[in-house]
Design goal:
Elements (H helix, E strand, L loop, with lengths): L6 E3 L15 H4 L3 E6 L4 E2 L6 E3 L6 E7 L5 E5 L5 E8 L3 E7 L2 E13 L6 E11 L8 H8 L4 E7 L15
Antiparallel strand pairs: 1-4, 2-5, 2-11, 3-4, 5-6, 6-7, 7-8, 8-9, 9-10, 10-11
């Protein structure tokens, strides 16, 4: 199923003031995080925000939490998997180093909540590729400086109100 307007995000140059108040616990501890990023997008004529249509993204990324606490990254721009570093600050960052370049997904805002629990399930995010090694020391600052050049998108995480299949069915 394709959503017509999966996300309406603010313009790239606008900083997100409320990012520091957002809890990233649900997405940071999720076993699976899925992201879609857009090189091109339509603009909402009423709000001026970006219209990101699910199914029409330029690239996809998947972050999988490993049992050892690490994170594996798989994306449509690279063959195979890579290790990602998860960094929490004012924002949440997945950082992959590849051939001297940094591929960084930054989660910066909640754009959708679960109706039953109120837990954030959809997040505004950007994906940037650059050579700025400061991202390892201060990813929040690098994000704020480079966000206008990053590809906008959104991320979601799995397993809200679901159980692991290995635990068996819930019996009444």
């Amino acid at each position: 199923m394709c959503l017509l307007a999966a996300a309406v995000l603010p313009a790239a140059a606008e900083p997100v003031a409320a990012a520091g108040a957002l809890s990233y616990e649900a997405i940071a501890t999720s076993p699976h995080v899925h992201c879609a990023f857009y090189r091109s997008y339509d603009i909402d004529p009423q709000t001026g925000g970006r219209l990101l249509v699910e199914g029409l993204s330029s690239s996809l990324a998947h972050y999988q939490r490993r049992r050892n606490g690490g994170v594996r990254a798989i994306d449509t721009r690279r063959a195979g998997a890579a290790e990602a570093r998860l960094v929490r600050g004012r924002y949440l960052h997945y950082i992959v180093r590849s051939a001297g370049m940094y591929e960084v997904t930054t989660v910066y805002a909640c754009i959708g909540r679960d109706a039953q629990s109120g837990v954030c399930t959809h997040y505004g995010a950007v994906n940037a590729r650059h050579f700025d090694h400061r991202v390892l020391r201060d990813p929040d600052r690098v994000y704020e400086e480079l966000q206008a050049a990053a590809e906008p998108g959104f991320c979601d995480h799995s397993f809200i109100h679901l159980q692991s299949a290995s635990r068996g069915p819930v019996l009444p």
